[in-house]
Fold this protein.
Amino acid sequence: MHHQATPVAVISCGGAIGAVARYAVGLEWPTAAGHFPTSTLLINVIGCAVMGIFMVLITEKWSVHPLIRPFFGTGVLGGFTTFSTYEVEAQHLLQHGHALIAVAYLVITLLAAILAVWVAAGLTRVAVLRSEGRPL
């Protein structure tokens, strides 16, 4: 168990940072009951885009310390993105008679998150190749 203590501590610290950032965004842009949860959608899409950028940079461009990936990817971005809140918000919308908003929210968030990772990773990969003078 001792060999796992350091990664767990690193993930925990990163998760605390990400969760506080997510909470701050939620306070700044709250969603009224019965309305489309735009702030959670944006949090998840931004977090997924940053993950796409981050993964390309640490796997194709930079040589990083082995704890960077668990700290930032699992910890910070895992704490920042909030797919559990996504599910709870959709459930509340359904329970309060807002089925169309709930279904739209579920579908749009999922598609936007996947698209964000894909586009951000692709654009980052192009930028890395160009910066190194390699052909696309």
